[in-house]
TrEMBL record:
InterPro entries: Polysacch_pyruvyl_Trfase. Residues 25-336 form the Polysaccharide pyruvyl transferase domain. This is dTDP-4-dehydrorhamnose 3,5-epimerase. It comes from Qingshengfaniella alkalisoli. It comes from the Bacteria. The lineage of its organism: Bacteria, Pseudomonadati, Pseudomonadota, Alphaproteobacteria, Rhodobacterales. Keywords: Plasmid.
């Protein structure tokens, strides 16, 4: 692990939680909620501050102090003129100074989960630069920096890759949510020999009871998918092609006698839900009959509640897959990155993975038939996976508590994927 390891030994440790929280992504917010829960289990009243996209949302939902990732330092009219003349470079330095102010008094900065190290629908001076400047500020303040159960890759932009690689190298602790993420970081020059692999943090969230007492129902997770690159010329056509296939898929499910419950995973997915409803049920008749529904939801717990009484889930967003597995539901993936494939492979469902740009509705329909024909075995595999995931996450919690000085350090792990893990900040 880069940097000298040290354990914080203070009676009142101040911890900052950094990420894209409060912006409408249910998975990101669920990861934050999971980490807050982890910290409160050992320390009921932790001194927390969240550095995030929308502080107001975080304060309201979790009741913790929060500041904006775009917090700014004081400026003058002269500075504004200099910034324009110098092509914005002084402004970038000013945002670094603002981050340095924001990290005042912080002992540890934790980045809890999420696919933090990729550039999906982003550009270099979006989140990649934001992450780097806060990581630099944290280390300049002498704070420890932990990236916990993070997802990584792909990173297509050269400058984005440089920013994110440097941010990762500044950390004093890194763990990845899957071997794929760990391998990706190794491939771009980050030393990962001491970086452990632990499951996604959202697997530690509570789940409602799972039942299948209602009419036969499939939950179909949608996404406003416009390709990987933000603002690409083919964005609209990519989305339209996706909707064309979803329209056929929904029609096929209804023809087979299924009720279809549409889900999102981000506030932006409302566009995909509304467009799908317009295509498959313009008259509203199917909704009146309860054959197609699109209930409102705004959290992972909300998604789990909607999944609780369904027979199977067809998911696109990663944390919809996590929710489906957490509820022990047979799950197919129509993913935009292979992170879905990796977690489903671990749960014994690797043969039920498709890519969002190449999937065929007929393959999803036939795969669903195969999946449900093996329901008992599928649920057994998922149950075993969840038991292992819970054990692994509990182990990581002990390491987190130890490096924050809350409990003595646990024995070193011997699991082959994380052998020789170094877990002190």
């Amino acid at each position: 692990m880069p940097g000298a390891a040290h354990t914080i030994r203070r009676p009142n440790v101040k911890i900052a939680l950094l990420g894209q929280f409060g912006s409408g992504n249910f998975g990101n917010d669920g990861s934050l909620e999971a980490m807050v829960g982890v910290l409160k289990r050992e320390c009921p009243s932790p001194d927390l501050i969240c550095i995030c996209s929308n502080p107001d949302v975080v304060r309201e939902r979790l009741g913790i102090e929060a500041i904006s990732i775009s917090a700014t330092a004081p400026r003058s009219r002269l500075f504004s003129v200099l910034d324009r003349v110098a092509l914005g470079v002084p402004g970038k330095l000013r945002t670094l100074l603002a981050a340095w102010y924001g990290c005042k008094g912080v002992d540890a900065v934790i980045i809890p989960g999420t696919g933090i190290l990729d550039d999906f629908q982003d550009h270099a001076f979006g989140w990649p630069y934001v992450l780097l400047r806060w990581c630099v500020a944290a280390r300049l303040r002498g704070a420890s920096l932990a990236l916990v159960s993070i997802g990584a890759g792909p990173i297509h932009g050269r400058l984005s890759r440089w920013f994110l690689t440097r941010a990762a190298k500044l950390s004093t602790y890194r763990s990845y949510r899957d071997d794929r993420s760990r391998s990706f970081m190794s491939s771009i020059g980050v030393k990962v020999s001491n970086d452990p692999v632990y499951p996604d943090l959202a697997f530690s969230l509570p789940s409602p009871e799972s039942v299948t007492a209602g009419p036969p129902t499939i939950c179909l997770g949608l996404m406003t998918y416009c390709g990987w690159r933000k603002g690409a010329p083919q964005s609209r056509s990519t989305f339209d092609e996706y909707l064309d296939k979803i329209e056929v898929l929904v029609g096929g499910l209804v023809a087979k006698g299924w009720r279809v419950r549409l889900l999102g995973g981000d506030a932006s997915d409302i566009e995909a839900l509304e467009a799908t409803l317009e295509r498959v049920d313009r008259s509203g008749e199917l909704r009146q009959q309860g054959i197609i529904t699109a209930p409102q939801h705004c959290s992972l717990m909300g998604i789990k509640s909607l999944i609780s009484d369904c027979d199977a889930v067809i998911a696109t967003r990663f944390h919809n897959v996590v929710c489906a597995l957490s509820m022990m539901k047979p799950t197919l993936s129509i993913g935009y990155a292979d992170k879905n494939d990796v977690v489903l492979e671990r749960a014994g469902l690797g043969s039920y993975c498709h890519h969002i740009e190449t999937f065929e509705p007929k393959d999803i329909l036939s795969g669903l038939d195969d999946l449900l024909a093996e329901r008992e075995q599928v649920v057994w595999h998922i149950s075993r996976f969840l038991q292992e995931a819970q054990a692994d996450l509990s182990e990581q919690e002990e390491h987190l508590y130890a490096m924050l000085g809350l409990v003595p350090a646990p024995a070193k792990r011997t699991h082959p994927s994380v052998e020789n893990a170094h877990c002190s900040l």
